[in-house]
Amino acid sequence: MEHITLLLGIVIVTALVFDFTNGFHDTANAMATTISTGALKPKTAVAMSAVLNLVGAFLSVEVAKTISGGIINEDGLKTEVIFAALVGAILWNLLTWLLGLPSSSSHALFGGLIGAAVMSMGWSSVNGGTVVTKVLLPALAAPLVAGIAATLATRLTYRISSRADEKSTAKGFRAGQIASAGLVSLAHGTNDAQKTMGIITLALITGGVLNPGANPPMWVIVSAGLAIALGTYLGGWRIIRTMGKGLTELAPKQGFAAQTSAATAILASSHIGFSLSTTQVCSGAVMGAGLGRKGGVVRWSTATRMFVAWGLTLPAAGLVGAGAELLTKQGAWGIATTAALLIGGSAVIWVLSRRQPVDHTNVTDDEIGTPAAPAGVVTTAIAAVSPPPAGPSLAITKDTVPFSADVPVSHSSASATAVADPARPATV
Questions:
Q1: CA distances (Å), 287 to each of 150, 197, 258, in order?
Q2: Would you call 81 helix, strand, or coil by DSSP?
Q3: Which residue among 49, 192, 378, 425 is the one 20 to 30 A from 255 at the CA level?
Q4: Within the chain, how many helices (H) and strands (E) appear?
Q5: CA 90 → CA 236, 250, 365, 406, distances in Å?
Q6: What is the pLDDT of residue 87?
């Protein structure tokens, strides 16, 4: 580590910051359904996910090798290109977190890396075949496969347990859901933590610290695992809310089916080196589980916003990465300006998020930051002409007639007259 320059140190720190944002951005993948169904309390769920993310980071390096030596040609790659790529990925992660959209941190990283590399060295710097086979095709296939698997698993689960006692099976499926959520967290560590390992390894190779094709050093594995675990523990509550309640309402049986399907897909992709978007896999599984239950409904308005975010992630992060590279290649002042813009943009997004904060205390509420809607004109009119309870007294008071503080006194008087004399037509 004695050969690490100041710029390389900045890149390593920025990569760990991205890893941190990846952690809280993707906590929802493992724990949203577990929290929404009440299987685990919010803080307990994210703590469990953080520990298993850390453990998963040590299980494999296949995805890290794909990133460090597959997507971008290493020859002629400069360290500042990686810095610019990370700027694009971090800003996109924070923006989609602010909007509560479960976009792909993986594709944000790939987009930033591709955009910065193209700005620096042209299109020849990108290994198009690797991008297609290990990024784009899995992005299209993974959520579809996970969704179909979750739909079938949900239907099978309901069929098997149709004659069993509902209360006893609910407890069993909650326990199964906790186990499957842990498996998703473990799978997330084997896939997403490795992306930062791959980026840091790539930076070390471009800086001459490691030889091309080298595996991530142990200190890189440990630091990347700790960064994503810390981010996971803080919890991306906005995205947890969208995944847990915004897409569909899930029962424990559906949550178990969704998480088991997602974990299977993620672990299989990690084994063969596919840098899969765990967000897309888990979102597809949640929607599949929603459709698998008879009468289940997917909120397609939310799903459409999510699909749009998926489609925009690669090009948007790529454009930001390209712009950042345009600055960084100007020299020291360009790198300093890019760093300042990253810090400033992150601060602005944080301030905006405080206007309607979402945390573990309100993540499962039906409405956050929205005041109760006032009674409409028609509702108020119907309440005003409702007949009083049966009885000899026709006395009209604020306690016997539905009353709204927003309705003028003259309206209340007219309502009282209408009730006292039903034969007289009421004017509303």
A1: 8, 31, 8
A2: helix
A3: 192
A4: 16, 0
A5: 14, 31, 28, 47
A6: 94
d(CA 334, CA 328): 4
Q: Which residues pair with 126 in a beta bridge?
A: 72
- Helix, strand and coil content of the chain, in percent to the nearest 5, comes to 70, 0, 30
**DSSP 8-state code for residue 55:** H
Sign, CA dihedral 257-293-144-232, equals negative
Kindly give the interhelix angle for 166-206 and 42-56, rounded to the nearest 10 degrees. 40
pTM of the entire structure? 0.73
Residue 9 backbone zone (phi > 0: left; psi -120 to 50: alpha; other: beta)? alpha
| Cα–Cα distance for residue pair 153/265, rounded to 1 Å | 13
**pLDDT tens digit string along 142-156?**
888 888 988 998 888
Backbone angles phi, psi at 289, to 5 degrees: -65, -35
Closest CA to 45 of 184, 173, 158, 214: 184
Q: What is the pLDDT of residues 262-311, one digit of tens each?
A: 888 877 776 666 666 777 888 888 888 888 887 777 788 878 888 888 88
Q: How confident is the model at residue 109 (pLDDT cuts 50, 70, 90)?
A: confident
| Residue whose entry in the numeric block shows the structure tokens 């915004």 | 246
Query: Which tokens hold the place of 101?
Result: 């959209």
Q: What is the CA radius of gyration of the chain?
A: 27
